[in-house]
Every structure is written in C-alpha cells, then in structure tokens.
Design brief:
This protein is 24% helix and 40% strand. The chain is an alpha+beta fold. The strands form 2 sheets. Strands 2-3-11-5-9-8 form a 6-stranded antiparallel β-sheet, with no helix packed on it. A 5-stranded antiparallel β-sheet has the order 1-4-10-6-7. A hairpin with a 4-residue loop joins strand 8 and strand 9. The longest helix has 24 residues. The N terminus is likely disordered.
Length: 217
C-alpha cells in the first residue's frame, strides 16, 4: 500500500501543475506563422521582418507593423481570448515607435483590454508607453508587462487591442504621424493565491516522495 503513495500524489498534483503553468492565451502572439493569423486588423497593419534596427528594438524575425504606409486614420490589431475561470492575467509585449508628435497633450490610447461589451477594463496610452522607453536612432523601444484583475468580467471572453491613431498630412505640420512595431505579445493566466499554495504543497510532496524512493534504492 505504501508504494502507491507516490503515484497517487503525482496523479493528484498533475492537474494543478497544468492549471498553474503559464500558457499564452493568444494565438500567434509572436507572429512566427509568417502572417497575421489569429488576429483581427483594420487600417494599415502588416507583417514585417526584423532588420538590424528592428532587432535592436526587440523585434524577432516576424512582427506586426502599424502605420507604415499612412499618416492619417486609425490602425488596429486585436484578438479575443477566453477568460473562463481566470481571475487575473499578465499582459506583455515588445514594442517600438518611430513618431513625430506636435500634440503632446493628446493622450492616444495604444493598448486596451476590453470586456465583451467593448468596455475598456484597462488602457495605456502611447505617451505613457513612450515615457519608459529606450531611445533609438529615430524613436523609442521597450518591453511592456503588467498584471490585470479581470475577476469582474462576467463574460467568457475578453479582447486585447492595439490601436495607432494618426492625423496630419504632411506629418510634421499637424497632429501625429507614427509607426509602431509589436512582437512577442503574451496574455497569460495568473493563478489565484490558493492555487499557488496548492502547487507549492504538491511540489513539496513530490520532492519528499522522490527522496523516499531514492533511499529505498
């Protein structure tokens, strides 16, 4: 009977480890399929491939590029994902901007976390993102990461949406003309404290069982 302890503990803990393991809720978040599959997009959004400058800005191989061929209008890139049973999510991505902005008081929303009804649960503006950026030759780049509480979401799905708003032609005279690169977009579930505690306990039990097995040998 004692020999059955380790298999039983293992079988009980495996679902917890599967639940607690980080997994991207998005499809094709790194754009390595060579296209924009999994994403909805409108305006000037295209796939690009990293040259030396883009690589220095954190882009790896294929990435999404917004606003390259226009100085007016709105370009959006979004994806819906399941939030069933998930109380919080960790959102992260690499980004770069090449931009001219003659309206610094305009707070253009770049990233939105949307509920199913379109309500924005969280937003970050282009200005806010740029504030923490690393200077490039013609712009800024950086890595964004933050955790959001979505326990108030009543539907089973949410949407992460990137938006680049441009107004002005020629770009240096009015409004904003920008180019934005996005790569390695990740939305991962954050386990509840109780789940983390169970995972820790399960890990200790597994380690103890393995030590007992080694001693018997």
């Amino acid at each position: 009977m004692k020999r059955a302890v380790f298999p039983i503990v293992l079988s009980c803990c495996l679902p917890l480890f599967a639940t607690g393991a980080q997994a991207n809720l998005l499809t094709n978040g790194d754009f390595e399929t060579g296209d924009l599959s999994g994403w909805s997009h409108a305006g000037d959004v295209r796939l690009a491939f990293a040259n030396s400058a883009a690589s220095a800005a954190g882009m790896v191989n294929a990435y999404a590029l917004l606003g390259l061929g226009t100085t007016t209008g709105t370009s959006t890139l979004s994806q819906q994902f399941s939030v069933t049973g998930i109380p919080a999510i960790a959102v992260s991505f690499d980004w770069f901007f090449v931009y001219w902005d003659n309206s610094p008081t305009v707070n253009d929303v770049f990233l939105s976390l949307l509920a199913t009804d379109g309500t924005a649960a969280a937003t970050i503006s282009m200005q806010e993102l740029s504030t923490g950026g690393t200077p490039l030759l013609n712009g800024l780049s950086g890595h964004f990461a933050n955790t959001y509480d979505i326990s108030s979401f009543t539907a089973n799905n949410a949407t992460v949406s990137f938006q680049l708003v441009e107004s002005g032609d020629p770009p240096l005279l009015t409004g904003t003309a920008s180019i934005a690169g996005i790569d390695n977009v990740s939305v991962e579930p954050v386990p509840e404290p109780a789940t983390l505690s169970l995972l820790a306990s399960g890990g200790l039990l597994l380690a103890a069982a393995r030590r007992r097995q080694r001693r018997r040998r």
